[in-house]
Design brief:
The structure holds 2 protein chains of 2 kinds.
Chain A: H1 9-27, H2 31-35, E1 38-46, E2 66-69, H3 70-80, E3 93-105, E4 111-123, E5 126-141, E6 144-154
Parallel strand pairs in A: 1-6
Antiparallel strand pairs in A: 1-2, 3-4, 4-5, 5-6
Chain B: E1 5-6, E2 12-15, E3 20-24, H1 26-29, H2 31-42, E4 47-51, E5 60-66, E6 69-76, E7 80-85, E8 100-102, E9 105-107, E10 114-116, E11 121-123, E12 147-151, E13 154-158, H3 166-170, H4 173-181, E14 188-199, H5 203-210, H6 216-219, H7 221-248, E15 252-257, E16 260-266, H8 281-309, E17 310-316, E18 320-324, E19 328-337, E20 340-350, H9 355-368, H10 376-391, E21 397-399, E22 414-415, H11 421-434
Antiparallel strand pairs in B: 1-2, 2-3, 3-21, 4-13, 5-6, 5-8, 6-7, 9-10, 10-11, 12-13, 14-20, 15-16, 15-22, 16-17, 17-18, 18-19, 19-20
The chains are: A alpha+beta, B alpha+beta.
């Protein structure tokens, strides 16, 4: 990433406020409100742990864990709202922490934000951790942002500790 | 003659008159049974190691842990695939530490012993201190797993040098593997990085689950609702009714001999080779029609229908799934402890697949199958709940009776795909191998 140009501290603060809000919605399981933060052409990705070139790999030609366009993301959220989504019944408790946020100007007026995250999930008295980094591509929408792409990269080799990823990262 | 009886292992109970088949829960929860399985099953059965496309060029290797043993699967530079124990013949170090790669030689990081890809010790890192004939009998060459054989690109190992051949072992499963591999003339490849995860349940629970046609409407209710929504959007309510009708009618489940089993049924959610569904659009249809025509010409309409329109869920005893479903899936599950297994699930497709169909295949795979998909996590949850249930209650028996009849060979019985014949075939073989009635050795 190039050096932060002068005058971006306020942009970073704006992005931080937005991302803290986004993560708070996830911890409160307000998934419909979270969904509304996305651009109409938005995408949500989780890369398969251990994949090379995880920041740039494409789900069109290699296997991801999650690659949701807005239609499938709506279906994912709909599924998670049902008690018949057994793996999230009873619903788990989550704690999303994000840090090390750096912002830069992307293409076509986008703002690119890189974060590091630690997320804990607790269900049936057992807690597992997910950690790694995220790359957000954001667009301006009114006085806030819209998410065009949220890519989560898990910085470990396999899901040997976690088993599955059934929460939103 | 029809009195209930316990099998050789003492853990499987067959009652023909009552038409019940029961498994003692010690088989899922007892550490003693688990230790015995290592000896009786995993030291005697053919175990999946890897696929040919993983070691395409000379020197290519992958590191793998099979039945608790560290192995290196390598295409040697002189004579083809080899399976070595991943331990230096000097002092034991796991010399291969990378997950995969291409090597001219393997060098142990401890004292620098060097082995070529045929396993031969070619250098001890230093000059002097050893007689010239130090390795004259080859005792310091890497140790190979006693047997390594392949069927249609699937490589298996056997820790018993006297085992029957892989082809004999695969028995009736070969026919199903053929149906799956006949999708392409140019060969298959594994795509990208596999999904690797742990399930906190006995490994046999995943075998049962993988060809269980009975659980889907309940466990995967949300997936069927998702599928119906997609179909409704492109084909209206009629498309949904047709899908559910086709899905529930027909289909066959059976034991295939030697503990293997499968089900075969109409595929409701499409297959890149070659069953098109409307959400995939017209460009995909043209390509899928072209593939279908080729397969029909090559194999005739009846076999083409089985290749293209049917999903097959196949279990190779004891711990390999090959599913031909939304994508071909190769899923190996390794017992770690009595109540934990490690799963490695690869997506497989034709080497020359059109980019659009490759995208559909991968999209299909992760939607349904991955550990973050719409279905597999619910399966895993059921298996973990089952493990908790058997470990923390004194109840002795589980039931696998659906479709049980008063007669017939349990190893090869067939019925509707939503019955449990295929699981009984697994357990019947498990009982014979555990009880010592079947040694899997050549006569």
């Amino acid at each position: 990433m190039s050096a932060i140009p002068a005058g971006t501290a306020s942009l970073r603060e704006e992005v931080e406020d937005f991302l803290y809000y986004e993560n708070d919605l996830l911890d409160r399981w307000q998934l419909n409100e979270w969904y509304a933060l996305f651009d109409k052409n938005g995408m949500y990705h989780i890369v398969t742990p251990g994949l090379k070139d995880a920041d740039t790999a494409s789900p069109d030609n290699t296997l991801f864990l999650v690659s949701d366009d807005m239609e499938r993301l709506a279906q994912r959220i709909d599924r998670l709202s049902k008690s018949s989504a057994h793996v999230e019944f009873p619903r788990s408790t989550t704690s999303h922490l994000i840090s090390n946020i750096r912002v830069s100007e992307g293409e076509n007026g986008e703002v690119v934000a890189r974060t590091r995250f630690i997320i804990h999930r607790t269900k049936f008295d057992e807690t597992v951790g997910f950690f790694g980094h995220q790359i957000y591509r954001l667009v301006r929408g009114g006085n806030t942002f819209r998410i065009r792409d949220k890519r989560c990269v898990l910085d470990f080799d396999t899901l040997s500790q976690q088993g599955k990823v059934t929460i939103i990262l | 003659m029809n009195a209930p009886f316990l099998g050789k292992s003492g853990l499987v109970e067959v009652d023909r008159r009552r038409r019940t088949f029961r498994v003692n829960r010690a088989a899922y929860r007892s550490p003693e049974v688990f230790d015995l399985e290592r000896k009786m099953i995993f030291n005697r059965c053919w175990l999946y190691l890897g696929f040919e496309s993983e070691i395409e060029k000379p020197g290519d290797f992958v590191r793998r842990r099979i039945a608790g043993r560290e192995l290196v699967f390598v295409r040697s530079r002189k004579d083809g695939p080899r399976a070595f124990y991943n331990t230096c013949m000097h002092r034991g170090v796991t010399f291969c530490r990378e997950r995969e790669g291409t090597n001219k030689v393997f060098t142990c990081p401890y004292h620098g012993w060097v082995f070529n890809t045929e396993g031969k010790l070619v250098d001890q890192g230093v000059a002097g201190g050893y007689p010239e004939d130090f390795n004259i009998d080859g005792r310091y060459n890497l140790m190979q797993v006693p047997r390594l054989e392949n069927y249609r690109g699937f490589y298996f190992i056997n820790f018993n040098k006297d085992a029957i051949s892989l082809e004999s072992y695969l028995s009736g499963a070969k026919e199903i593997i053929d149906l799956i591999m006949d999708q392409t003339e140019v060969g298959h490849t594994l795509i990208g990085r596999p999904h690797e995860y742990t399930i906190d349940a006995n490994y046999k629970y995943l075998a049962e689950n993988s060809y269980d046609g009975y659980h889907a409407p309940e466990t995967h209710r949300t997936y069927f609702e998702f599928l119906a929504d997609r179909l409704r959007a492109s084909g209206g309510d009629a498309a949904v009714t047709a899908m559910m009708g086709n899905y529930q009618g027909g289909g066959r489940g059976a034991g295939l001999g030697m503990g293997h089993g499968y089900f075969e049924a109409w595929v409701p959610n499409g297959k890149p080779v070659a069953s098109w569904i409307p959400p995939w659009g017209p460009d995909a249809k043209a390509e899928i029609d072209r593939i279908r025509d080729r397969i029909t010409q090559q194999f005739g309409p009846e076999r083409a229908k089985r290749i293209c329109d049917h999903q097959k869920n196949l279990i190779i005893f004891p711990n390999l799934v090959i599913n031909d479903h939304v994508s071909i899936t190769v899923r190996m599950f390794q017992p770690v402890t009595v109540d934990t297994m490690r799963v490695t699930a690869w997506a497989m497709g034709p080497k020359d697949e059109h980019p659009l169909l490759r995208k559909i295949r991968l999209d299909n795979f992760l939607t349904f199958l991955g550990p973050a998909g719409f279905a597999t996590p619910d399966d895993n949850e059921m298996l973990e709940l089952a493990q908790v249930g058997v470990e923390h209650t004194p109840v002795e028996w589980s039931d696998i009776s659906r479709g049980m009849r008063e007669d017939g060979d349990l190893m090869t019985s067939a019925g509707p795909w939503t019955d449990e014949n295929q699981m009984r075939a697994y357990w019947a073989q498990w009982d014979r191998v555990m009880g010592g009635a079947e040694t899997l050795e050549a006569a």
